[in-house]
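Help needed: design a sequence for this.
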């Protein structure tokens, strides 16, 4: 968002959406006055993020290795320059979160713990509260917003239409909870409205993730890109809840395996086994289910009695469904999870429409190509908030 700060007018910027992308953008825009719209924490995908934030900052790791994994997962359709910028920015972004007080998990000697997730060549996923990373990070930054003098929060306002004057976005129309319309002028608008998963019957996303930012941008004439690239997470917990609770990929990173009812390993024939990229694993589970075979995530041997301590969020979600994941395999199926496509932006987060920026899942930055690498989305939201 650096481009916003260099403009001469001193009027406010409107940020639409108070998930990680919106909150981080609002903080980084200081001292510009910011109006931050939309419901926070409980309504966001950010707060549901379990696994963590992928960052190459440990001994023996290198942003170039993280970039190589990102490019491989993206199936040849990532923008290599954006991949280099975002993976290279990771350590400074995490240092900033640490300065702001995010309590990332550490081992006994105080070193940041790093988890492994699918298609990463080594452990590099920082996490907080075990598998409550998104909630922990967003709550910390939301607390900063509450005391930031440059940010005005309007949680009850929902953006309905962008105002365009002489080809430039100059504000927006919004509605209050009681349906009353309001016009808000701005020098620029940042869309941080999240993804589209809520439009699908089977999804891990909050139902509010319905692509409203895409609609706002398209109606105003901005270019959208790669809308067909929707990621399905392989291991949504199939117990009938809506949205479907997620069993984080970090479980497979910790050694949990996908099995059939017979106990046979589903991914035995794949070179990367249970840690193959998400699209590969999701297709394998889909194919098995299409033949009437149920698939389970079995963490009994790898995690077992340590489940509640290491993965408290998944443990709670399983218990709510009457399952004990320390003693039982978890029934899983693919569900719509993440939108790689979105409003096309450049490296500064600028859309094709002057005065309109986009950040977070609503944006198509070129980082993910056709398939997002696990835990690269929180990183992207932080990187493009600057
Ligand atoms: C279960 C789950 C687990 C995940 N785990 C991880 C993980 O471990 N690591 C990782 O990197 N990524 C993970 N992801 C993906 C990641 O959480 C999201 O991609 C990211 O948090 C999106 O952030 P955001 O700020 O763009 O959107 P969100 O966090 O969804 O916030 C968007 C906000 O905008 C609001 N909004 C929408 N439209 C309007 C409007 N018109 N007016 C006002 N407000 C509006 C919404 O209500 C919402 O509050 C996970 C996602 C899910 C669902």
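Sure. Designed sequence:
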């Amino acid at each position: 968002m650096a481009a916003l700060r260099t403009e001469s007018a001193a009027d406010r910027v409107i940020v639409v959406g108070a998930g990680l992308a919106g909150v981080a953008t609002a903080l980084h825009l200081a001292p510009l006055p910011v109006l931050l719209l939309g419901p926070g924490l409980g309504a966001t995908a950010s707060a549901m993020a379990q696994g963590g934030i992928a960052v190459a900052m440990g001994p023996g790791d290198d942003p170039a290795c993280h970039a190589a994994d990102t490019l491989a997962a993206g199936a040849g359709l990532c923008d290599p320059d954006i991949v280099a910028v975002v993976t290279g920015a990771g350590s400074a972004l995490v240092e900033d979160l640490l300065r702001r007080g995010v309590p990332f998990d550490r081992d006994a000697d105080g070193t940041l713990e790093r988890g492994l997730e699918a298609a990463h060549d080594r452990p590099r996923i920082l996490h907080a509260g075990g598998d409550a990373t998104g909630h922990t990070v967003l709550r910390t930054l939301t607390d900063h917003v509450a005391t930031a003098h440059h940010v005005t929060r309007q949680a009850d306002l929902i953006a309905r239409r962008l105002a365009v004057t002489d080809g430039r976005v100059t504000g927006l129309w919004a509605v209050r909870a009681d349906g009353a319309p309001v016009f808000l002028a701005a020098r620029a608008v940042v869309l941080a409205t999240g993804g589209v998963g809520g439009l699908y019957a089977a999804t891990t996303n909050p139902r509010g993730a319905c692509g409203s930012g895409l609609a706002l941008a398209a109606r105003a004439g901005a270019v959208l890109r790669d809308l067909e690239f929707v990621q399905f997470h392989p291991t949504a917990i199939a117990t009938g809840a809506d949205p479907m609770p997620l069993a984080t990929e970090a479980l497979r990173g910790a050694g949990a395996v996908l099995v059939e009812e017979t106990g046979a390993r589903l991914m035995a024939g794949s070179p990367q086994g249970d840690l193959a990229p998400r699209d590969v694993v999701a297709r394998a589970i889909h194919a098995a289910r299409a033949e009437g075979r149920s698939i389970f995530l079995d963490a009994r041997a790898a995690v077992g009695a340590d489940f509640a301590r290491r993965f408290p969020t998944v443990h709670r979600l399983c218990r709510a469904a009457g399952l004990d994941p320390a003693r039982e395999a978890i029934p899983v199926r693919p569900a719509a999870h993440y939108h790689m496509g979105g409003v096309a932006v450049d490296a500064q987060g600028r859309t094709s429409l002057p005065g309109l920026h986009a950040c977070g899942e609503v944006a198509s930055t070129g980082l993910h190509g056709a398939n997002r690498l696990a835990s690269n989305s929180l990183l992207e939201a932080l990187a493009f908030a600057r």
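The longest strand covers residues 330-339.
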